[in-house]
Design goal:
The chain is mainly alpha-helical. It has 18 helices and four strands. It has a domain of about 140 residues. The strands form two sheets. Strands 1-2 form a two-stranded antiparallel sheet. Strands 3-4 form a two-stranded antiparallel sheet. It is a multi-pass membrane protein.
Length: about 425
């Protein structure tokens, strides 16, 4: 059996464990809406088996099999109706497909897991081809057990990893590889937005590799933007109000317990103030953009020193800036970062520490929510749940700062000697010496 086959088999086992972990919250009883019982909410927090997949079965018309966006909208209080979900359109379609032939939240979890599992296996195969044995971090990583089926993130992670794979393993000229990679990142935007931030470092990479190739950089940006527009236009035409509602929902989202970011835990006593929420709407995206600019600038300095723009490392650093400074930091976002632990040569200590902090945050937040809902003492001095949560939140935040620097300072694990892409044709008039 080949190493890649073993890698995919190990990933399948880990995905099965991830499903079993979430399935603990399903059944054994179901009410008239197909919601698990008894005491679904209490069990999901107490037993740390909560998933957005199961939770959103009720409340987004998923249980009614309503096709998303076309007939819905958003109320003044922020409530979504008519099949609208708070995610980009391709994720909404995946959610609808997962609900087609089921009538309980348990069936929805299972069908969604079966729908997303191939994406997790594809990521394992691509990472194995790119970074060999280091891909075991994906196949056996604790985050895959915790979050593979927490939300609909495996497809979007696959789109980002596929873009790296195309750039480094497809035997084609740079122009073709970069265009296809940009299309994949555009599809990622239509799944969960975040891959769109990698378009800029990819464009800078093409610009520098092509000898100040402005056309190539613009082509990358245009291919990504064009793909995102083409995917979204049919939904906007079919039901503009419902399509726009998903974006409006996210723009209205406030810093609260559901966001679980440093902004909430650092300023939780201010979150009830409208002025604070308005300020966060400016400060958070402003700092995110500043982190992007710093990462791209450091990447440029490395290009001037080495002659190659480190687009993968810059992308990893930009993601760290986003995770740290964005208003929302959902637990499953660790899946977004996990492939970069495979692709970039950061020290094992960073990875082990991040896994530990992430596990503490994941278990701590749900146990803390359970204690709060049950009316039991939940302060830092009352028990380990709040302590684990604080260790996780602030440990993760400190590690993201360190990883931002570490990613930019090191090399990738990608061996470009294997399946080296065909060189791009020299521009007309360029002198080629031998």
């Amino acid at each position: 059996m080949s190493a890649l086959a073993v890698l995919c088999l190990l990933t399948a086992v880990t995905l099965a464990l991830g499903y079993a972990n979430k399935a603990r919250c399903t059944g054994p009883e179901f009410n008239e809406w197909g919601r698990s019982g008894p005491d679904y909410q209490m069990r999901s927090y107490r037993d740390v088996c909560y998933s957005d997949v199961q939770n959103l079965w009720v409340g987004r018309d998923i249980d009614r099999h309503v096709f998303p966006y076309v007939h819905g909208g958003i109320d003044p209080d922020g409530s979504l109706w008519g099949g609208v979900v708070e995610y980009p359109v391709l994720t909404g379609v995946l959610m609808w497909l997962g609900a087609l032939f089921v009538d309980t939240d348990a069936g929805f979890l299972l069908s969604s897991a079966l729908l997303m599992a191939p994406f997790g296996l594809a990521v394992a195969w691509w990472l194995g081809r790119l970074s060999r044995w280091r891909a075991l971090l994906w196949a056996l990583g604790p985050p895959l057990v915790l979050y593979a089926f927490h939300n609909w993130d495996l497809p979007v992670v696959a789109s980002a990893v596929a873009a790296v794979y195309v750039m480094h393993r497809w035997r084609a000229p740079l122009a073709r590889r970069s265009t296809v990679a940009a299309v994949l990142l555009g599809l990622g935007f239509a799944l969960k937005v975040y891959p769109a931030i990698f378009v800029l470092p990819l464009a800078l990479h093409v610009f520098t590799e092509g000898g100040r190739d402005w056309r190539g950089a613009v082509r990358v940006a245009g291919a990504a933007a064009g793909t995102a527009v083409l995917v979204n236009v049919p939904f906007a035409l079919a039901g503009f109000q419902g399509w726009a509602a998903s974006f409006e929902f996210q723009s209205r989202r406030q810093v609260d317990i559901s966001t679980n970011s440093v902004w909430y835990w650092g300023f939780r006593h201010w979150t009830g103030d409208d002025g604070f929420q308005d300020a966060m709407g400016i400060i958070s995206p402003g700092l995110v953009l500043a982190s992007f600019a710093i990462a791209c600038w450091v990447g440029w300095l490395r290009y001037e020193k080495t002659g190659s723009y480190p687009w993968v490392q810059v992308s990893a650093a930009m993601l760290c800036g986003f995770l740290l400074l964005h208003k929302v930091h959902s637990p499953q976002y660790t899946l977004w970062l996990l492939p970069f632990f495979v692709l970039v040569q950061v020290r094992w200590g960073w990875i082990a520490a991040y896994f530990a902090a992430d596990f503490a945050m994941c278990t701590g937040i749900f146990r803390w929510l359970h204690l709060n809902n049950a009316g039991e003492p939940s302060g830092v001095h009352d028990g380990f749940a709040a302590q684990a949560l604080m260790i996780g939140v602030w440990g993760r935040a400190a590690l993201l700062v360190g990883l931002f620097v570490a990613f930019l300072a090191t090399r990738t694990t990608i061996d470009d000697r294997e399946d080296t892409p065909a060189p791009s044709p020299a521009p007309e008039g360029t002198r080629v010496t031998g």
